[in-house]
Amino acid sequence: MKSIFNKFVAKSKNVDSMEGKEEQLAKQVAALYSLLASIYGTDRLVMKAGKVDALHLMRSENLAERVLGLERLTFDSPSLERLPVPEEIPGILARVEEELADLLARKAVEERIERRVSEKMQERHEEYLQEIRMQVLKENQGPETGATLKKLEELEAMEKKRLARSAMDMLRPAEITEIVGQDQAVAALVAKLASPFPQHIILYGPPGVGKTTAARLALEAAKKVASSPFQADAPFVEVDGTTLRWDPREVTNPLLGSVHDPIYQGARRDLAESAVPEPKLGLVTEAHGGVLFIDEVGELDPLLQNKLLKVLEDKRVHFDSSYYDPNDPGVPQYIRKIFEEGAPADFILIGATTRDPSQINPALRSRCAEIFFEPLTPAHIITIVENAASKLQVELAPGVAEAIAQYTIEGRKAINLLADAYAMVLYRQGGQQGERVVISLEDIYEMARISRLTPFVQVKAKAAAEIGRVFGLGVAGFVGSVLEIEAAAFPARKPGEGVIRFNETAGSMARDSVFNAAAVLRRLTGDDLHNYDLHVNVVGGGNIDGPSAGAAIFLAIYSAITGRPIWQDRALTGEISIQGKIKPVGGIPEKIYGARQAGMKMVLVPKENEKDIPAAVPDCQVRAVETIEEVIELMCVLQ
To answer: CA-to-CA distance for 595 and 266, rounded, in angstroms?
Structure first.
């Protein structure tokens, strides 16, 4: 840095040796004044001299006074008063030179910084101008570019392509009268929606019986009733509880809604820049004034269910955010209204589930009416298949609808099986839809083999009688089933030392029923069960939940020991006490359904369950019994 300084003082260092010392010092002082003038500039130097009272000293002919003026200007100190003596002047000038050298170094650094700052300011200025130009272009031409317009063209071209509707879309009931086998449930559903005071509802039932379709069509039917509060544009918002996910931190909640804070990447740019949180309304607000249908509502997260219950009570959704400032004038009115009053959520909830009612949140159940959809019978499946064939405009060979009914009790699966067979026949004919399409039994069996389907009902009733074989009844979910129970008895090798064997997979309750049966058998016949080697088997290894097969187990043992045949087109359910009483059990409607599926002509139920018998049971006689003697009389062939 001293190179600049040396340029100005070189003359004072290279004087002729013949010149006087005072003249050398005078030239050195003059050079230092010139350096100061170059550093500050002449005008600023004069102003600085005025501040430190050095103007008269600069213009003095006295070398000591000029040195004093130089000293005041260099060290910026007007308090210096003493004139230096000649011997002190060289030292003072040396100190001045060092100070000026430092000043020059600082000034060089400052100049570089200032130059860099100027360059950056120029870059920012050019960027700002470019941004302004782009904004003006967007205002005049819009946000579109060649690339965005090409993407738009591709999307529009894709929109023009359409595949045929799926079979379920085309064959789904379009009118509420097309729903098969659920007359009572559908009537109850429409009545609860069409009321001036509609209720929240939970629909129970096995899959594929029409719960979702019934809910959608029930809303349309309710709109046409004068007393209904639903308007013509009432929405039907559908969501699946198994796929509904949310973040407990409320960053996202598609059901109830959430708040996108300014730091959240999904917030609008204008709101984020002004630090305003943005509420995102959920499905409950979208369903305002209509129906929110949640399929598999039992699978909904328990905490989310509790939050939903709060919305059902308040009929509003309330939002909160630490970023919301009610005193901020930059908050839009709609956001202020949502935060202060909440978002409207006055809707009717319809939940559907395949779970048992005991598995549903009690608080949710207490707020909802409950409607049970019945399992579909083979006759219902046949009707559904025939209606679907009519819509597809295909012919069914004799026995096709009945064959499909053997493989499923779900309307959805029945339609899918028919649609698969239709596609196979159409493909075989070369894909010409105008040709006559006939679906044969072989087509159905082929699709069943491809899909690895087996007949839904494995046990079938028959008009015959057998010894040691009886049909009990069980329940799995909403569907009843027939249990095939058999017994074989042989005289023991030693009286009183017989062995009783019962398959362990049936469960402890069923094993206890064997011992109850032993006591009843001894009371009726006087015969001890231990006089026989007895084997009782539940065919298929099914687990019997509860004592409801007690009467059936007794009857199988009784038949095996006495030799009295049992009718094979009759089934029974009921617990047996050691006094021979038939005690009540659960699941009577489902068990009667299972018996009808198997083709049973008569079903025996406990007398105390008589009130549980459905009002209409076509093709099957239901008898209520109190004692085991009545069971024997109705189930066994008369001797």
So the answer is: 57
Location of structure tokens 């549903």: 360
- The neighbouring-strand residues paired with 13 are none
Distance CA 354, CA 473 (A): 21
| 110-116 contacts, C-beta under 8 A, 24 or more apart | none
Confidence of residue 270 (pLDDT cuts 50, 70, 90): low
Percent helix, strand, coil in the chain, to 5, is: 50, 15, 35
Q: Specify whether 548 is catalytic.
A: yes
Q: 10 Å Cβ neighbour count for 139?
A: 9
**93: confidence class by pLDDT, cuts 50, 70, 90:** confident
Dihedral over Cα of 349, 354, 356, 359: its sign: negative
Q: In angstroms, rounded to a whole number, what is the distance separating the alpha carbons of residues 590 and 546?
A: 15
Local confidence band at 289 (pLDDT 50, 70, 90 cut-offs)? very high
Confidence category of residue 11, pLDDT binned at 50, 70, 90: very low
Please choose, from the candidates 203, 209, 165, 173, the residue with its C-alpha nearest in 3D space to the C-alpha of residue 413: 209
Helix, strand or coil for residue 610? helix
Tell me the CA end-to-end span of the chain in Å, nearest whole number. Answer: 132
The DSSP 8-state label assigned to residue 164 in this structure reads: P
Residue 242 predicted with pLDDT over 60: yes
Burial 350-386 (b: 16+ CB within 10 A, else e): bbbbbeeeeebbeebeeebbebbbbbbbbbbbbbbbe
* Best CA proximity match to 357, nearest among 370, 375, 373: 370
Query: Which amino acid is located at 101 in the chain?
Result: A
Q: What is the pLDDT of residue 110?
A: 81
Amino acid 183 reads: D
Judge contact between 498 and 637, C-beta under 8 A.
no
- The tens digit of pLDDT for each residue in 152-181 reads 788 888 887 776 566 667 778 888 888 888
Amino acid (one-letter) located at 134 = M
List 548, 577, 601, 611, catalytic entry = 548
Give every CB contact of residue 336 below 8 A, 6+ residues apart in sequence.
Answer: 326
Report the alpha-carbon distance of residue 257 to residue 331 in Å, rounded: 19
> Which 8-state DSSP code applies to residue 166?
P
pLDDT in tens, 485-495: 999 999 988 88
Residues 601-627 pLDDT 10s: 999 999 999 998 888 787 889 999 999
**Is residue 138 among the annotated active site residues?**
no
Q: How far is CA 618 from CA 539, 615, 621, in A?
A: 28, 10, 8
Which one is catalytic: 211, 413, 581, 591? Answer: 591
pTM: 0.68
In this structure, what are the phi and psi dihedrals at residue 495, rounded to the nearest 5 degrees?
-55, 135
Structure tokens at 294: 């949640």
pLDDT band at 287 (very low <50, low <70, confident <90, very high): very high
Q: What is the DSSP letter of 259?
A: E
Measured CA to CA, the distance from residue 511 to residue 374 in angstroms comes to: 32
Q: Which two tokens stand for residue 149?
A: 């317009």
